[in-house]
Every structure is written in C-alpha cells, then in structure tokens.
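Human
Can I borrow your eye for a moment on a structure tokenisation matter? Give me a protein, with the fold worked out from its sequence. Write it directly below this note and I will take it from there.

Assistant
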Amino acid sequence: MAPLIILIATFVMFFAVNRFLLGEKFSLSFIGRTALALMLIATGIAHFTSTDLMIQMMPDFVPAKRELVYFTGVCELLAVIGLLWDKTAKITAILLILFFIAILPANVVGSLKEVQLGGMENGVMYLFFRIPLQILFIGWTYYFGIKLKEQF
C-alpha cells in the first residue's frame, strides 16, 4: 500500500506545484516518471531493509535469494536515474515493465506463504489488491515513460 500512496501523493503534489507555482515548466511525462522514481526509491531501499522478508517471498527453487533481492533493489534504484534522464526514460520504462511482470510471481508466492510484508500476511485475498496494483504500475510506466515520451 505504501508504494501506491507514494506514487499518487507525489504525482498530485508535483502536478499541483508544477501547475500553480512553476507555470507548467515540467511535462506531464516527467511528473509521472518522477512520481514513479520516488516510489522506486522507497521500494529499492526496502530490498536492503526488509531483505529477509523479501527472501521469504521467493519460490523455494530460486537460488541465491539474498543476492537476487539485493540485485533487484539495485535495479530499482538505477531505474530512478534512467527514468529521470530523458535520453534513457523510454528504454528504462520498457525494462521496468518487464521487471514488474517478472516480480509478480514473488507477490503470489509471498501471499501464499503469508509473508508479513505489505499486506501479504492476508494470504490469497491480498492478490485481489496486488495484481490490479501491479497492472496499475505497468500501465503507469507505459503511459508516462513510453506513450507520453513518444509525443515529443
């Protein structure tokens, strides 16, 4: 739930500041990508502060779980830079969409295991929220990182 709150709150705040105080200096694409970047900072840091819980989310057959959690955290933090730099925003958005698709199984496994992280402790019912949320993240990334970027 925290990633969604960060995404929406920072978008609304930056949109309002841009419109009413900055005279629309920034594009809607940049505002949406900035909100996504701030969300990724929070989720990327969580890979280092909640590592053991994230390891529990992973399917049993996955090797080097701790290293993979750290790697994906670094990927999320690097995506922040890629989203905010106009020259790399589109390719970063494409890679993030693939990333969001790739990590969805971990959320399914985490809810089946009832991992005490981000709502997964509610079991399978959590997926009725998480799967649409993942679709929202994918759609957001596509819209602000690819579709709006192509208009320039």
